[in-house]
Specification:
single chain, 291 residues, alpha/beta, TIM Barrel, 44% helix, globular
């Protein structure tokens, strides 16, 4: 075989070896398809060509029905919410007095993850304890996650701890609710430090582009430097938490940076569409995959 022929045949293999591993795409269904029943929302996810779905209140869902549907559609139930919401009263992480409530909820949520065939639980720090310095609240979060490691790890479930902004006057996903101004964990630097201090492979960060852009920006460098501690990514533009391309975030560059790290877990669309939801999902999918 001539050398030029050998080079021509081997070039695609070399290029294939250099191509970054692709991440998977998911949809937070309530935000994209409000008003539809959960089954119909999940069917829309499959129709849009995404690989996974996520939803908030597993307590109100029929696990047998959802598992049957997701298997039929060949989708993954990407994550469930572990301790209910941004202000999980009686089951937060900042106050040691709520530790047993938090662990009880994590046990129930881990069992739910088994039923729904999901491997991730979103964990919320909860609101700050009034009048208490940050340092003991930080330590309480670490201790709570260490204790919860013993709950989730035997089942292969990862806790993804969410960083939430405390500056936006309105939460677009819940405009009539609390804007979580008192939420504790609002900075990524502290979040990644908490993960390192916890020292568990079953504790990572849910990195939300909307929240992080509002609080600190610098999305690409933060992702590049901390990708080993990121277990899930949420996508929404700023302002308004609409689809990519409607605001100030350069999402083609952000998606490319994620691909280049070799990240292979899920990137989830959690935005309020400014126009037809299916059209925005199609366009965002193409943008995310670089096609």
């Amino acid at each position: 075989m001539l050398r030029r022929d050998l080079l021509r045949l081997s070039a695609p293999l070399v290029l294939g070896q250099r191509k970054p591993a692709g991440f998977k795409l998911s949809v937070r269904v309530e935000a994209l398809f409000p008003g539809l029943p959960l089954d119909a929302q999940i069917e829309k996810v499959a129709e849009a060509g995404y690989q996974g779905f996520e939803f908030g209140d597993w307590r109100a869902a029929d696990s047998n029905r959802i598992v049957k549907l997701k298997r039929k559609l060949e989708l993954e139930c990407v994550c469930l919410v572990g301790n209910i919401g941004v202000n999980p009263k009686g089951m937060g992480l900042c106050d040691p007095a709520e530790r047993e409530g938090f662990l009880a909820e994590m046990r129930a949520s881990t069992e739910a993850a088994r039923r729904f065939e999901s491997r991730r639980l979103v964990v919320l720090s909860g609101f700050k304890v009034p009048g208490r310095p940050r340092a003991p609240q930080h330590d309480s979060i670490v201790e709570g996650l260490k204790r919860a490691h013993d709950v989730v790890s035997p089942h292969g479930v990862t806790m993804i701890v969410e960083v939430v902004n405390t500056l936006a006057p309105v939460e677009p996903l819940n405009p009539r609710g609390n804007n979580h101004a008192d939420y504790y964990l609002d900075r990524t630097a502290e979040a990644f430090e908490i993960v390192r201090e916890t020292g568990s492979p079953f504790v990572k960060i849910l990195y939300d582009t909307y929240h992080s852009q509002i609080m600190e920006g610098n999305l690409i460098e933060t992702i590049r430097k901390n990708i080993a501690h990121i277990g899930h990514i949420h996508v929404g533009d700023v302002p308004g938490r609409h689809e990519p391309g409607t605001g100030e975030i350069n999402f083609p560059s952000v998606f490319r940076a994620i691909r280049e790290t070799g990240y292979s877990d899920f990137v989830a669309m959690e935005y309020v569409p400014s126009r037809d939801a299916m059209t925005t999902l199609k366009e965002t999918r193409a943008m995310a995959l670089g096609v």
